């Protein structure tokens, strides 16, 4: 028995299962690629001359809370 016709026949036998399997593989590959890129960028920041002047500030409670505008003015020296 030929392997490719057997494979194609069984792949399209249950289309919902095939679609869910392909979607889960695509989503997991996307997540792995995205997380590896984020990790790489966090470990190796860009070495441009402007990056030495960059300041990162966040709220002490969480990342979702916005800093007050007076803090922004204080950082910019206004």
Instruction: Report the β-strand fraction as a percent range.
Output: under 5%
Radius of gyration (CA) equals 24 Å
Oligomer, anyone? single chain
Output the helix-strand order.
Answer: HHH
Give the helix tally. 3
Counted beta strands? 0
Would you tell me the structural class of the helices and strands? Answer: mainly alpha
Average pLDDT value? 82
Head-to-tail CA distance between termini: 78 Å
Poorly predicted runs are none
Q: How would you portray this structure in words?
A:
- By secondary structure, the protein is mainly alpha-helical.
- It has 3 helices and no strands.
- The mean pLDDT is about 80.
Give the structure's gist in a few sentences.
It is built from three helices and no strands.
What structural keywords apply?
78 residues; mainly alpha; 59% helix; elongated
Question: How would you summarize the topology of this molecule?
Answer:
Blueprint: H1 3-11, H2 15-43, H3 69-76
């Amino acid at each position: 028995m030929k392997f490719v016709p057997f494979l194609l026949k069984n792949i399209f036998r249950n289309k919902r299962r095939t679609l869910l399997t392909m979607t889960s593989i695509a989503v997991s590959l996307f997540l792995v690629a995205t997380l590896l890129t984020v990790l790489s960028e966090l470990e190796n920041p860009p070495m441009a001359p402007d990056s030495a002047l960059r300041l990162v500030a966040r709220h002490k409670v969480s990342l979702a809370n916005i800093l007050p505008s007076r803090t922004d003015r204080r950082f910019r020296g206004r």
